[in-house]
Design brief:
With 306 residues, chain A is of the alpha+beta class. Chain A has helices at 2-5, 12-41, 44-47, 57-75, 106-114, 168-172, 198-202, 246-249, 256-260, 277-284, and strands at 80-82, 92-97, 127-132, 154-159, 178-180, 186-188, 209-210, 225-227, 239-240, 266-270, 287-288, 300-303. Chain A has a domain at 92-303: Alpha-Beta Plaits (2-Layer Sandwich), CATH 3.30.70. The longest helix of chain A is centred in the first third of the chain and has 30 residues, at 12-41. By secondary structure, chain B is α+β, with helices and mostly antiparallel strands. Chain B is 30% helix and 10% strand. Classes of the chains: A alpha+beta (306), B alpha+beta (264). Chains A and B meet through helix 5, strand 10 and helix 10 of A and helix 1 and strand 6 of B.
């Protein structure tokens, strides 16, 4: 009888403590698991990296070299990533002639290749709307047509980032990961974006895209001419957008979508230069902007020939 | 847009985000001053019919007013580091703009392939020097042996509307003067004036190269790169790169079959 009541040396309290400690350790490990997984794709350098506009030139250089190294590790491609600043006295504008656009989507294809988009999703910053002639109801537009174009009774309206003078997407960003540059281009710091997608919801033109998955692209297809704010391969879970190919246009070249256009429907240039092609269009054609009533003041203009 | 307007816009565009906001000393002093006044007033009106809430609104108004005044006074734009790389637009030296035309224009391809892999081409007059030509000829298939690929669907034009009857190595303007084949844009322009006007202003026809011609040169497509001169209407093409958006329901691609990628 007394033997039964004899303490075994392990008290009830010790058992409860041990169980609690085990559970606690398991819960802690579980809670930390995302960080363990995350460290595979995110380096410590990236985690402590400062905002784009706080980096000095030396820090920026370190970041660019690190990103080039990571592209080599993850995608096996040798790329050059630059940080290209806006040109002085330049504000970019774009115009598109709806009378001669045939809806071939060559612009979207050029965007897809130039900007190193995810290959399986056929992602591009340009969405070509097929609309009935005589109407402009964007809600009824078809974007996935496969029949030969131009189809009878239809017209085609490519829509991409309108580079608004008053961009709603910038205002909603909770972390200032997106902003408008001096040449009017709204850019994203992909390393600062937290992926909340507020900007995607705020954009009235559906111009922003979210990287649901890590972009898949083979090393041979990667465009090695890259810039930090534009076409470098985006990380998973961040928002991206059209930058008017700033890695090309900020060194004076035409954007890829314009060069790919087989009909010459696209006109690009410096809005501040009175002799530019874009200014001639604005002064001589009857241009309009999309959803003017929202007050976004787009720098992307549409026009019909008369 | 004038330069002063640009400066003004720059102020609006170069937003000073909260993240970077450097509260300026003047703003702090004004803010402190007004909040002191506001607090003092709040004590004064504590037991009166004035509600302190109104005073707080007043305080907000002052703080906002100070902030607006402060930013309007032309604070240096030191929050954004701008390394302006190039300042080239507006300079007088411009790179050339060349017009691209298909190789072999103004010649006839015999169908033979030369040793270097290129197609053999001969000047038109090689044959036409010995072939008598009618004064009017609308159907290029008449010779039965040559030009079988040409179908003339271009208004009510005839061969000799653009080709010279005597010199087949040249084109002929409506005025009667001859034109080299590489100047074909001028030939098209005599009827299609509006298109030519747009073309010369960069608003019609594809191009490659530089928008900023003080930095680099540009190549514009000639008319016949896109429009066959004998059948100028753009022919229907099959569109490329069908979107594979996860929100769109269509049979393209593999991602739509991926259950983890197909949610709404």
């Amino acid at each position: 009888m007394e033997a039964e009541n004899k303490p075994t040396g392990i008290s009830r309290r010790t058992v409860v403590k041990g169980a609690a400690a085990t559970l606690g350790a398991a819960a802690f490990a579980r809670a930390m698991a995302p960080i363990m997984n995350w460290s595979e794709t995110t380096s410590l350098d990236e985690f402590v990296q400062k905002h784009y506009r706080e980096l000095n030139s030396q820090e920026m250089n370190d970041v660019l070299r690190r990103l080039e190294r990571e592209t080599k590790e993850n995608y096996g491609a040798d790329v050059t990533i630059n940080d290209i600043k806006p040109m002085q006295g330049v504000v970019f504008g774009y115009a598109l002639n709806l009378s001669i656009c045939i809806g071939c989507r060559k612009c979207a294809e050029a965007c897809h290749k130039e900007n190193n988009h995810d290959r399986p999703s056929h992602n591009a910053y340009i969405r070509v709307l097929e609309l009935d002639q005589g109407s402009m109801n964007l809600e009824n537009a078809n974007t996935t047509y496969t029949h030969p174009v131009p189809a009878p009774g239809k017209y085609y309206m490519p829509v991409q980032c309108q580079q608004c003078e008053n961009p709603p997407c910038v205002n909603v960003c909770p972390v200032e990961a997106t902003w408008q540059e001096a040449d009017g281009i709204t850019v994203v710091d992909y390393n600062w974006c937290i992926g909340c997608r507020y900007c995607e919801a705020a954009c009235p033109y559906h111009a922003r895209r979210f990287n649901w998955r890590k972009p898949e692209i083979s090393a041979t297809e990667i465009n090695p001419n890259q810039a930090y704010l534009s076409n470098r391969i985006r990380p998973q879970g961040v928002v991206e957008k059209c930058t008017f190919c700033l890695h090309r246009t900020r060194v004076g070249r035409l954007p890829a979508c314009l060069e790919a256009c087989p009909t010459g429907a696209r006109v690009f240039g410096n809005l501040l230069d009175p002799n530019s092609e874009i200014r001639w269009v604005l002064e001589n054609k009857r241009v309009f902007v999309l959803k003017e009533e929202l007050g976004t003041k787009p720098r992307f203009f549409y026009f019909f020939d008369v | 847009m004038s330069r002063t307007k640009l400066q003004k816009n720059k102020r609006i565009w170069g937003q000073q985000p909260i993240y970077f906001a450097q509260v300026r000393p003047a703003a702090i002093h004004f803010g402190t001053f007004f909040s002191m006044i506001a607090n003092y007033k709040a004590i004064l009106v504590k037991n009166s019919h004035f509600r302190p809430l109104k005073t707080i609104h007043l305080l907000n108004f002052f703080v906002i007013a100070v902030a607006i005044l402060d930013s309007a006074c032309g604070a240096p734009d030191d929050t954004i580091v701008r390394n302006v790389a190039v300042a080239s637009p507006g300079t007088t030296e411009l790179y050339p703009e060349t017009i691209f035309l298909p190789p072999g224009i103004g010649t006839y391809a015999t169908g033979k392939i030369l040793a270097d892999g290129t197609a053999e081409t001969i000047p038109c007059m090689t044959c036409h020097a010995t072939i008598p030509t009618a004064k009017t000829q609308t159907n290029p298939m008449d010779p039965k042996q040559f030009h079988q690929d040409i179908s003339l669907v271009h208004g009510n034009l005839e061969c000799l509307s653009c080709h010279d009857r005597e010199n087949r190595n040249a084109l002929r303007l409506a005025s009667g003067s001859l034109l080299e084949f590489r100047e074909t844009v001028q030939l098209c322009a005599q009827c299609h004036g509006l298109q030519y006007r747009d073309y010369t202003h960069g608003a019609h026809g594809g191009m490659n190269g530089y928008w900023d011609r003080s930095t680099g040169e540009r190549t514009k497509n000639g008319c016949i790169v896109c429009h066959s001169p004998h059948n100028p209407k753009i022919q229907p093409v099959v569109p490329v790169l069908v979107p594979n958006d996860r929100f769109l329901d269509h049979p393209m691609g593999e991602t739509t079959t991926d259950s983890t990628y197909n949610g709404h």
